[in-house]
Design brief:
Blueprint lengths: L6 E7 L3 H12 L6 E8 L5 H11 L5 E5 L4 H10 L5 E4 L4 E3 L3 H11 L5 E9 L5 E4 L8 H11 L9 E4 L17 H11 L2 E12 L9 H15 L13 H18 L3 H14 L1 H5 L2 H11 L9
Parallel strand pairs: 1-2, 1-4, 2-3, 6-9
Antiparallel strand pairs: 4-8, 5-9, 6-7, 6-8
């Protein structure tokens, strides 16, 4: 039996056929022979299937390509877990790229922390107008409780799905929640920060491209996922008991996050509803966040961004 590779790179793709070749090429450019690449077409209706077949023809033996009816990114990632064998899993979004020498940076982390459950590095954000901004993980507290709190509340830890590698065994219990239409990676990161060993590098390991049709900016999907997100982040059968003390605070924080998203999208009724929900949960904490309160007062006065068509 052939030895399992060190890395399995899984690219779920839904209607991102026009980005897929760039993403695959960023993997093929990585050095070493200790990785496998799996692309999964999640029921796309665009050119994804044709692009996948073309890539298979031009790079025989370098990648695999699977197709399935549309199931969502969480289910597609979970299928990627089942269909690969690497010790570490990298889930690369089909509109992102692995940075040059990303796998070399991960190898160095593994040498330094061979028992790490999560490897993470800096990701480079590219805006639609071509500007770039590095986004490092940040200073990682050593104690799990502080890591968990810092990730959920302080905005000082920046983990991105395309800029992380997960030890396969660490995902055995905490797979991606398939009933969530978005933000499905937050429960996974929260679980590993509360229970696992983490190793980070300042090296850039992923390039993430912002664009208008990115699912990251879909407020409707984020709002639909909000109730499930709370339940998954605080699942009693998976999370340490001490995490439950932060449940109410996190729920209020998520409503404020949705308030901001709806506000920027010009969706006044939805924004006001989200702020009121946060206010009922954590009155003093909500009112003390002046940047949010200022936006709320603008909406109450009939001001604020116009709804985007």
């Amino acid at each position: 039996m052939a030895e399992a590779p060190l890395f399995s790179i899984v690219i779920p793709c839904f209607n991102y056929g026009h980005w897929l070749e760039r993403t695959v090429n960023s993997v093929l450019a990585q050095g070493g022979g200790d990785w496998e690449l799996l692309v999964i077409d999640d029921g796309s209706t665009d050119t994804t299937a044709q692009v996948g077949r073309d890539l298979l023809g031009r790079h025989p033996g370098r990648l695999r390509f699977l197709s399935q009816p549309n199931r969502g990114v969480a289910a597609t990632r979970n299928r990627g877990i089942d269909q690969t064998q690497g010790r570490y899993l990298i889930f690369l979004d089909a509109d992102d790229e692995l940075a040059p020498n990303a796998l070399a940076s991960y190898r160095q982390l593994i040498e330094r922390a061979p028992q790490a459950d999560l490897l993470a590095g800096t990701h480079l954000v590219v805006t639609p107008d071509g500007r770039t901004k590095p986004c490092p993980v940040g200073t990682l507290p050593a104690e799990p409780r502080r890591r968990f709190k810092t990730y959920l509340f302080d905005g000082a830890l920046h983990f991105a799905g395309s800029a992380a590698a997960f030890r396969r065994g660490a995902l055995a219990a905490r797979r991606y929640p398939e009933h969530m239409p978005s933000t499905e990676d937050i429960p996974v990161f929260a679980y590993l920060l509360a229970t696992g060993e983490i190793a980070v590098t300042p090296a850039v390991v992923a390039i993430m491209h912002q664009h208008p049709d990115s699912l990251r900016h879909d407020t409707r999907r984020a709002a639909a996922a909000a109730p499930a997100l709370l339940e998954e982040v605080f699942r009693a059968d998976l999370m340490p008991g001490w995490t439950q003390a932060y449940r109410r605070r996190y729920q209020a924080r998520r409503w404020l996050s949705l308030f901001r998203s709806h506000y920027l999208a010009g969706e006044r009724p939805a924004a006001l509803d989200c702020f009121h929900r946060a206010l009922r949960l954590e009155p003093l904490a909500t009112l003390s966040r002046w940047s949010y309160l200022r936006k709320y007062l603008k909406l109450r006065c009939g001001l604020g961004p116009e709804k985007k068509s």
